[in-house]
Amino acid sequence: MPLISTTPMLEQAKREKYGIVAFNVHSLDSIYWVLEAAAEMKSPVILQTTVGTVKSLGAENIVKVATAAADFYQVPTGLHLDHCTDYEVIKKAIRAGYTSVMIDASKHPFAENVQQTKQVMDLAASLGVNVEAELGKVGGVEEEVVVSEKDAQKAVPEECEEFVALTGVPTLAPAIGTAHGIYKGEPNIDFDRIEEISKLVDIPLVLHGGSAVPEEDVRKCVALGMSKVNVSTELKNAYSVAIREHFAAQPNSLDPRAYLQTAKEAAKEMVISKIKIVGSEGRISPLTIK
Ligand code: 13P
Q1: What residues does each domain of the chain span?
Q2: What is the pLDDT of residues 87-143, one digit of tens each?
Q3: Which of 173, 250, 256, 264 could bridge across to 206 with cysteines, CB 3.0–4.6 Å?
Q4: Active-site annotation holds for 82
Q5: Hey, whose CA ends up nearest to atom 9 of ligand 1?
Q6: Cβ atoms within 10 A of the Cβ of 256, count?
Q7: What pLDDT, in 10s, does the model give residues 194-216?
Q8: How far is the CA of 69 from the centre of ligand 1 (A)?
Q9: pTM of the predicted model, to two decimals?
C-alpha cells in the first residue's frame, strides 16, 4: 500500500466527525512503532517530520521506510512535512514522496502568508499533495519554530475565511490557544473561536500542540472540525522515559534490541491512547485489512 494524500483522509474524518492523529516521528524505528500500533487499532494515521528530522534522517530514507511500513502493516498512511518555512525544502520533500506539506508563513503579514501559501499550492495541488497553512501564531517550541507566550496570537475567523478563498488550501491550522510542548498550566482553548472558524471555512482544521491537552478538550476540538490532531512531545517523552528507566535499572545494558523494545512498547501505548481519544479506531476500510 503506497503512502496516500492526507486530503481525502482528513475530508472523510471531518465528514464522519472523528480525528486523525499526526504523530511526529524522530527516528526510522519509530515509524514502525506508530504503524504497528495503528494497525492494531485498524486506524488510518499520519506520520509527520519536522525539517530537523528531514535533515537528520534524509527525506528519501523517511519516505522509503514509511512506504515499506505502511505496506507491511496495511495501514492507510499519509506522510507530512511539519512547520516548513522554506520553499526549497518543501520541493525536495514532495519530490522524495511526501504526500502532505505545511508551509508555515504565519510569522509574516497576512498578504505574505497568502503569497507563500499560493506558491506551494501551485507546486503541490496538481500532484494531489495536501497543503497545510497556519493563521495566527501557535505559541511554544517546535524545533526551529519558537513563539513566546506574548507573541502567540489567535487566528481571526474572518481572516481564515479570506485566506482559504484566496489560497485554496485544503487544510488550515488556526491558532486557537494551544501551544507546542508540555503546558505549565491548563491550555486555554478558545472553543467559540473554533466554532466560528468552522462555520466560515469548510475544510478540515488542524490542532497543533496536541500534547498534554485534556482528553475532553481534544474530543471537543475534533467535534468542532479539527480533524487533524498533532502529537509530538508526549510521544517523544513516552519512549525517552522508557529508555531512561531501562538504563537506570540496568546501567550496563548493551543490547539495543532490549532498550528499543521498551521504547517501542511505550510508544505504542501512547499512540493507541491518542487514537482512541480522536475516535479513528476501526476506520480502515475492510478491503485493506489483511
Ligand atoms: P506537541 O509537541 O505539543 O504535541 O505539538 C505537536 C505539533 O503541533 C507539531 O506541529
Answers
A1: 6-236
A2: 999 999 999 999 999 999 999 999 999 999 999 999 999 999 999 999 998 878 777
A3: 173
A4: yes
A5: 230
A6: 10
A7: 999 999 999 999 999 999 999 99
A8: 23
A9: 0.95
